[in-house]
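Annex B, item 7. Sequence and structure tokens for protein A, then protein B.
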Amino acid sequence: MTARFEHVDPIRRRIMSAVRGRDTKPEMLVRRLLHSMNYRYRLHRKDLPGHPDVVFGKRKKAIFVHGCFWHRHEGCKKATVPKTRADFWAEKFSRNVERDHEVESKLAEMGWQTLTVWECETKEVGVLQGKLRDFLEAEKLPAAERERLQA
């Protein structure tokens, strides 16, 4: 083991190593919902910054499905902070949030629109379905309506 992990509880290490980066339950729910709404998409395009979870190439739209804990969903009860190794976690969370902002900025510069779906938002499927439809159909709406949705 490297020095970085010397003081990590073996049980904690096993739990954290099991955390998945893709095909998570929230991501799978979003994908199934989009498919049931007759949208077709690509997954994790490696040629785009951040490898968005769901990509609509012709529309130039990308969806990220973020875990509230890892990506620090502001005001969410799932965005807790572990009691041990507080400095490590603060730095890790800060890097995650900074990286998320950088990726969204790069995609915007490339002409892409992004949507972040938070883990906790997947609990209310009807609301989530409306949010996804609004995002994907926004270009078909009049300009004033698009601005209202983005605010």
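Protein B:
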Amino acid sequence: MRPTPGFELSGSGRRIVIDETSGRLPAAEERDGRALTSWTALTESGWTDARPALPIRIIGG
């Protein structure tokens, strides 16, 4: 696996990956030390004026 540019969020192991050619954010990943534990692909992103829909209830809260 080749290294990809990205940002880690405050030493949490959560990292946002950046596509060098387009500047888009195609993925997010979580690591436990060096082991990859979770990976999420972003299928669409863009600007909007719409307000986000909030969940009806909080799960686990």
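Comment on protein B: The chain has a mean pLDDT of 80.
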